[in-house]
């Protein structure tokens, strides 16, 4: 492969200030620690408050990456137009019925933000309830939170964030005249749940450290300053959420970290009721509630049910002692979610790495499954807004098959295709091949790898490859249809997803064997996937571009240290790379709730040493790093901007290669990047242009 040619531009220099920290008798020095703004809480609310010295450095990084990628401007524009051409710009959802209306969302030609509408139940004229483009006008950043109509269908509760910091404001709109009420509720988690009487709502409020720790009740027509606190969680290691049930009978407060959960419930028609504890938290025990008329259904891993089971309990007293097993635990079959209806219980499960939907008739216990035959595919359970129904909604796609939306009659077992994703610029599934490989890991485990490539691509080792991975929090990356990656595949790329440990792709044990002391498995699995793709002739190491974001960005940093020669380039988006420093900083929003995932290095020397052994920033060394692109957002509360800023500077200092390390920071966005659907495509086009450049494909169109 011809080595990519980048302009001869000198990267920014960065100030260095002495700083050290001693824990468990171990001293770390970090002369880049000053890039962490002491007033980060204020900066999230108002980015103009950023320390001028820090801003100057970030602007220098922006100038550098702009110059280094200047020659890809035409390519980025071409990629953007291609990806935009695959989007039906005036697309709309299939409305979902609820009472006298059906609710849905849509986009207009050229629109960045969604609109929310409703029609009469059986169809008719659309009424626009909320126009996202109108609300976003004249804002550098705008992201809609939850949008929810009231049980009486007269009001709309909606949230928005206009900084990227995920401090959402909530507003109530009168649907008779389309006007928002004067009251505004600030600093929320972005959504709320209505009272049964539609006269108020419950929501979570974020504290000074950006944690949802309290639940409040807001009565319509009053000031947010007078809102009554319903519940407060005093342990900073737990996050709080609030939700309702499909029949509007119960309000449920969930308290959870990554391995333990607890619920408190109270009637949705009594805002003054004291929340009632269902089952007290037990470290490692998780459970979710689903209301089912006279019972609650409980999805739980209690009693050693590692891949979860379903239990039920009487609604009047659903304490742990009254739980009764309904669907037993089956090792290797991971139950992901449960939904209940008057006559049916439905759950989404994964077995042998593939999802399926199971429908159980409540009166008889008879079960049947909805499954598909492709090697790799994705299923989504959409459920219903109504409790008394025989019809549910689900989506299906594969890496070659555009998304299809079905209504499914649970009684007659009839599927009705409602919608197939349109690709306006054209898409022929027969032009593409999807495969599922099993890559042998160093310890003998087999790592699933989903592939997509053009039928005409030569599989002789010459094809470039984008290898994507995540591998944390039990999150599974589905093998679903992605129109964006076709811009690479049509240029001869193999697009691959490594289903590595740390996710739940092969069950809950797959997650457990990729966290805390076993975290190294996540990284070695990904490297094993890269090696297997080379061994099978799909690509070669200098043509593999690795990509991951957030915790997947940490993966990118780790594999760069462990196997820099295994990759021809690395794209790390909002990368969680300064793991040890962040886990030692208990003022940051996510740190205490993250300790079950990563370990607590403040109290545990063993956890400190385990994290220090892989934390990408702490393990940067004299290695021949490939070209690296890091992407971040200034107001990101999840992965703070200073992590990639420090990492990039340290990589440049220690790398033994002359490959560039670029840092692209969005000064007007947070963790999710740009907020509009087309603005987001511009960011994807930038990353893809980098991948094409480092593999020598930037001058080609197919």
Mass-distribution shape: globular
**CATH homologous superfamily descriptor of the domain at 20-84 and 431-694:** Alpha/Beta hydrolase fold, catalytic domain
What is the helical fraction, as a range of percent?
Answer: 10-25%
Overall strand count: 37
| Low-confidence blocks of residues | none
Whole-number radius of gyration? Answer: 25 Å
Provide the CATH architecture of the domain at 20-84 and 431-694.
Answer: 3-Layer(aba) Sandwich
Broad CATH class of the domain at 20-84 and 431-694 = Alpha Beta
Number of helices: 13
Please state roughly what percent of the residues sit in beta strands, choosing from under 5%, 5-15%, 15-25%, 25-35%, 35-45% or over 45%. 25-35%
Looking at CATH, which topology of the domain at 20-84 and 431-694 would you report? Answer: Rossmann fold
Distance between the termini: 17 Å
Taking the sheet with the most strands, its summary is:
8 strands, mixed
Strand order of the largest sheet: 30-31-33-32-34-35-36-37
**Average of pLDDT:** 94
How would you characterize the overall build of this protein?
This is Oligopeptidase B. It comes from Tianweitania populi. It holds the Pfam family Peptidase_S9_N. This protein has 702 residues and is α+β, with helices and mostly antiparallel strands. Helices cover 19% and strands 33% of the residues. Helix 3 (73-85) crosses helix 13 (677-694). It is globular, with a radius of gyration of 25 Å.
């Amino acid at each position: 492969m011809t080595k990519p040619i980048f302009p001869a531009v000198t990267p920014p220099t960065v100030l260095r200030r002495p700083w050290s920290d001693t824990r468990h008798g171990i001293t770390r020095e970090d002369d880049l620690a000053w890039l962490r703004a002491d007033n980060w809480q204020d900066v999230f609310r108002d980015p103009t408050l950023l320390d001028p010295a820090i801003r100057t450095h970030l602007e220098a990084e922006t100038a550098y990456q702009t110059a280094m990628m200047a020659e890809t401007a035409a390519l980025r524009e071409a990629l953007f137009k291609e990806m935009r051409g695959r989007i039906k710009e005036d697309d709309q959802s299939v409305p979902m019925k609820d009472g006298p209306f059906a609710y849905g969302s849509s986009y207009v030609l050229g629109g960045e933000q969604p609109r929310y509408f409703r029609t009469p139940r059986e169809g008719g004229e659309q009424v626009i309830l909320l126009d996202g483009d109108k609300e976003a006008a004249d804002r550098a950043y705008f992201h809609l939170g939850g949008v929810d109509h009231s049980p009486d269908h007269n009001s709309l509760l909606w949230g928005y964030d206009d900084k990227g910091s995920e401090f959402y404001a909530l507003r109530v709109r009168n649907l008779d005249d389309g006007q928002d009420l004067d009251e505004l509720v600030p600093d929320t988690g972005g959504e709320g749940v209505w009272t049964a009487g539609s006269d108020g709502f419950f929501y979570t409020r974020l504290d000074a450290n950006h944690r949802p720790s309290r639940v409040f009740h807001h009565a319509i027509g009053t000031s947010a300053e007078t809102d009554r606190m319903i519940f407060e969680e005093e342990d900073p290691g737990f996050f709080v959420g609030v939700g309702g049930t499909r029949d509007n009978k119960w309000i449920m407060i969930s308290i959870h970290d990554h391995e333990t959960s607890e619920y408190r419930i109270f009637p949705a028609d009594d805002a003054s009721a004291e929340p009632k504890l269902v089952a007290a938290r037990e470290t490692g025990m998780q459970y979710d509630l689903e209301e089912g008329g006279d019972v609650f259904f409980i999805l739980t891993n209690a009693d050693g049910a590692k891949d979860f089971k379903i239990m039920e309990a009487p609604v009047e007293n659903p304490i742990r002692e009254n739980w009764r097993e309904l669907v037993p635990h089956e090792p290797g079959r991971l139950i992901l979610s449960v939904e209940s209806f008057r006559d049916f219980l439905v759950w989404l499960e994964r077995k042998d790495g593939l999802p399926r939907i199971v429908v159980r008739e409540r009166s008889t216990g008879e079960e049947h499954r909805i499954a598909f035959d492709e090697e790799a595919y994705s299923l989504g359970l959409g459920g219903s807004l109504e409790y008394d129904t025989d019809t549910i909604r689900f989506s299906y796609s594969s890496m070659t098959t555009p998304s299809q939306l079905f209504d499914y009659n649970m009684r007659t077992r009839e599927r009705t295709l409602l919608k197939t994703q349109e690709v306006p610029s054209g898409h022929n599934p027969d032009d593409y091949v999807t495969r599922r490989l099993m890559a042998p890991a160093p310890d003998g485990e087999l790592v699933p790898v989903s592939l997509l490539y053009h039928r005409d691509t030569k599989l002789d080792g010459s094809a470039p490859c984008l290898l994507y991975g995540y591998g944390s929090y039990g999150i599974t990356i589905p093998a679903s249809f992605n129109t964006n990656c076709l811009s690479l595949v049509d240029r001869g790329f193999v697009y691959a997803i490594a289903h590595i440990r740390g996710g739940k792709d092969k069950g809950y044990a797959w997650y457990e064997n990729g966290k805390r002391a076993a975290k190294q498995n996540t990284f070695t699995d990904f490297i094993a996937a890269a090696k297997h793709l080379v061994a099978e002739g799909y690509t070669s190491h200098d043509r593999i571009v690795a990509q991951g974001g957030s915790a997947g960005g940490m993966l990118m940093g780790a594999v760069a240290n462990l196997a820099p020669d295994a990759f021809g380039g690395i794209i790390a988006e909002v990368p969680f790379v300064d793991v040890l420093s962040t886990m030692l900083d208990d003022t940051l929003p996510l740190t205490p709730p993250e300790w079950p995932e990563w370990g607590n290095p403040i109290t545990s020397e063993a956890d400190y040493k385990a994290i220090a052994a892989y934390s990408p920033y702490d393990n940067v060394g004299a290695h021949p790093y490939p070209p690296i692109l890091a992407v971040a957002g200034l107001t990101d509360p999840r992965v703070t901007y200073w992590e990639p800023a420090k990492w990039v500077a340290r990589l440049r200092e220690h790398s033994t290669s002359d490959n560039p390390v670029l840092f692209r920071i969005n000064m007007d966005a947070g963790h999710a990047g740009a907020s509009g659907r087309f603005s987001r495509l511009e960011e994807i086009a930038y990353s893809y242009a980098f991948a094409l450049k480092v593999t020598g494909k930037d001058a080609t169109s197919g």
